[in-house]
Amino acid sequence: MTAWLYVPFGIACILAVCFGVHSLISLSSVSFPASVACMIGLFLILVLLQAILGDRKTKQIVSLIDIPVSS
Q1: How far is CA 46 from CA 8, 14, 39, in A?
Q2: Which among 16, 5, 36 is positioned nearest to 44, based on CA atoms?
Q3: Eight-state DSSP code of residue 1
Q4: Angle, to 10 degrees, between the axis of helix 55-70 and the axis of helix 34-53?
Q5: Does pLDDT of 71 surpass 60?
Q6: For 6-52, how does the pLDDT look when each residue is reduced to its tens digit (9 = 90+)?
Q7: Alpha carbon of residue 25 to chain centroid
Q8: Whole-number Å distance between alpha carbons of 5 and 18
Q9: Is 68's pLDDT higher than 90?
């Protein structure tokens, strides 16, 4: 049941963020894939959260992100 609720919502959020990043990148003269920029941003955010919040809280956040990504 969780997959039926979280996966479509999570995928829609991921696509919306990628579209927003693509729109921002297209305003500049730089040509860079939005998906790669989002992946780098997510990595940096997770590293920062691990340093601030610790392992346990970061693993909870990763478990929420993992549901729509791994399905």
Answers
A1: 22, 16, 11
A2: 36
A3: -
A4: 150
A5: no
A6: 888 888 999 999 999 999 999 999 999 999 999 999 999 999 999 99
A7: 17
A8: 21
A9: no
Separation between Cα atoms, residue 43 and residue 62, nearest integer Å: 11
Helices of type H across the chain: 2-27, 34-53, 55-70
- Amino acid (one-letter) located at 26: S
Q: Which two tokens stand for residue 59?
A: 């693993």
List all residues 6 or more positions away from 13 whose beta carbon is below 8 Å from its beta carbon: 68
Q: Which two tokens stand for residue 47?
A: 């590293």
| Nearest-5° Cα angle at 70, 6 to 44 | 95
